[in-house]
Design goal:
This protein has 242 residues and is of the alpha+beta class. It folds into 2 domains: 125 residues, Nuclear Transport Factor 2, Chain: A (Roll); 92 residues, Roll (Nuclear Transport Factor 2, Chain: A), CATH 3.10.450. Helix content is 24%, strand content 38%. Strands 2-1-6-5-4-3 form a 6-stranded mixed sheet, with helices on one face. The relative contact order is 0.15.
């Protein structure tokens, strides 16, 4: 679907889809967002599962709006990585859980397909909400080139070589888990124990976002690696269901 000049979306919905999606959901701009998505869009998230087509998508977006409102959620967008066939926007949900306020990392990946079709995948931990993981599954989309600093880390993780894993990180680097807790670099081996297979890449030369299938489950996780001036990993941010 292409907008005619007299059917442009509101200014709040212009820009990259991955950057405006959650703002539109929180602002209850469901119909303009559906118009932007098109009638062949797909949405897959670990809270509610998969939906495709206008009617199921509308129901799903309404569910997200209600869900975020119930938790008094506020969305803060941080970094966007633009790749060859997919874009990733990182952010945080400031929300109320069990009477307490907390910040939870969330990422949205938009895969651009032929004829302006898009597939959206949400990556956020489900355990804080007491929900069973029901997130995105791996597809057979083309895989882009993985930069060397990221492939070195994946290789070391695959071999369970602790020394090699540590050597991929800068001395003062950090690892953030899916729930938002910060760790030192030695936590990478402990947090990433499942075999990982790359399913998609978005890389801008400084930040690399990797979609990865987890072992035999075919579930997807997202790793975002920030490259330091040394060429090693300065920070690793994990987005997964648990």
């Amino acid at each position: 679907m292409r907008h005619a000049e007299d059917e442009l979306p509101p200014s709040s919905l212009r820009g990259r889809l991955c950057e405006v999606f959650f703002s539109a959901v929180l602002g209850e701009q469901i119909d303009p967002l559906l118009h932007r998505l098109g009638d062949k869009a797909e949405l897959d998230d670990p809270i509610f599962g998969a939906a495709a087509g206008l009617s199921p998508l509308k129901d799903r977006l309404v569910e997200w709006t209600r869900f975020l409102a119930e938790h008094d959620a506020v969305y803060d967008r941080t970094i966007t990585v633009v790749g060859a066939d997919r874009d990733v926007t990182e952010g945080a949900l400031e929300l109320r859980l069990d009477g307490h306020h907390r910040s939870l990392p969330i990422a949205l990946l938009v895969e651009r397909r032929k004829e302006r079709e898009v597939a959206l995948r949400v990556f956020v931990a489900t355990s804080p909400f007491g929900k069973t993981a029901n997130g995105p599954k791996a597809t057979n989309a083309p895989i882009g080139a993985v930069p060397s600093f990221a492939s070195d880390l994946l290789g070391a993780l695959g071999k369970r070589d602790t020394s090699a894993i540590l050597a991929c990180f800068e001395q003062e680097s950090s690892v953030r888990d899916a729930a938002g807790a910060e760790h030192s670099r030695d936590a990478a081996a402990r947090l990433l124990t499942t075999p990982l297979e790359v399913r998609g890449v978005a890389d801008n030369g400084q930040v690399c976002a990797l979609e990865l299938s987890l072992g035999d489950s075919n579930r997807l996780a997202l790793l975002v690696l920030q490259r330091g001036d040394s060429g090693l990993v300065r920070s690793l941010r994990i987005y997964s269901e648990t």
